[in-house]
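Our consortium's second objective concerns turning raw sequence data into structural hypotheses that experimental partners can test. To show how far this objective has progressed, the report includes one record in full. It was chosen at random from the queue rather than selected for favorable results. The single chain below, 480 residues long, was entered without modification.
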Amino acid sequence: MHFRNILARLHDGRHLQVADWQMNPGEFWAITGTNGSGKTVLSLLPADQLVLSHGDATGLPAQVAYVSLEAQAAQIEIERKEDESDLNDMADKGTLIRDYLAPLAEVSEWIEKLGIAHLLDSGFRDLSTGESRKVLLIHALRERPDLLVLDGPLEGLDQGSRAVLSEALSQLQQQGQAILWVANRLDELPPWISHLAFMHDAQLLYQGPKDEVLARPELQGLMHFDRPLPDFPSCGRAQLQLAEGDPLVGMKEVSIIYAERELFSGLNWRVEPGVHWAIQGPNGCGKTSLLQLITGDNPQCYRNDLKLFGIQRGSGETIWDIKKHIGLVSASLQWEYRATTNVLSTVISGLYDSIGLYQSTGDDDKQLALKWLEIIGLRDRANQSLQHLSYGEQRLVLIARALIKQPPLLILDEPCQGLDDPSRMLVLAFINRLAEQQDITLLYVTHHPTEIPPAIDHRLLFTAVDGHSTIHLQQPSDGA
């Protein structure tokens, strides 16, 4: 493939610029760069998916398949549009995995290799982020593409799944499959990547053999976070008052059951103010379902014994009585945030716990939101549409949305998913400061144990066997 003098207008008004880029047989390329740099847009060139203002592209492959966070979001949106639950007065599973991957005989080896046989009768939108990523990969391979584009393929996967998928992709590469890897994390670049293209501000800045590009001091400077973390602006919220002995979250003999499948049962858990918990476990074990009991986004919160912020669930409270005490960052929230809104309004909406902004706001709210956008480095994007930002930039905006009201409880469900190295270091610095200050209590889900700050010293650990999870609570005295 050869691209010369490429110029293509982007949604945000910038232009993708590529002077000369050639990928030769036997070379395995990765694209990296900062969030919003144009990595994903550049990966669309081989499939001729961009309207070029200028330029020439030759040697394009006939069939290109994509696996990405954006592709996951697009499939979930299709599932939502086709959901007939209201018409049928019963839950609509949507597209079953066995139908999505049919004919199964063609991909049986990959189904076994990635360990998803137990998911074949599940609906796509019921899968965890990591599970749906595996399904999308198998679906892409079924098409037998001339070029497979993998945009952050290890994002959202647990440690075991990352190892299995990395080995499987290595075998695929050795078998001659052409692969273009788009990387947010430099530490996840596979050793067989031979060449690297580095993007910044919609321009292809550097390209060539991987080691030579990575050694460039200019690249190291762009991919390193070294600025001091500013003080967090106060929103002036009133302190939550709990009765003596009340936890922020109290669960007694809690279980989650879907149809005939019991995800977990018998959970007794208390989250005390200022005591932070890391939540860990394999993909599909129930981590997100557990957090949705707290946020009220899982209807089984009403059939369980839950006490949140001094309120017994099912005692006549509204969902807003609960949500006003919670800040949330998650993949599901990002997929659900489809409201037509700009970046500034998205951050302000965190003060009102809404998807979108449906009321007039004062100047104080706007100035507070602008301060948070300054902290995450996106103040200049305040008036742009949220949907025109990259996946990683959207994630940063939702982190600011969660923090703007300084909630008593902050739920971070894989907050670093889709972030480049400097943005991830910024968010981890946020998490570390919040954990040390103890003004906000953290529930932090991550598949990267090395990214858990020492101040988060309590663990809720899931282990899963045959679709059922056992949960172990580990406190510092247990040797955590």
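The partners drew two points from this record. The domain at 2-222 is CATH 3.40.50.300 (Rossmann fold). The first strand starts at residue 2 and ends at 9. Both points have been shared with the crystallography group to help prioritize constructs.
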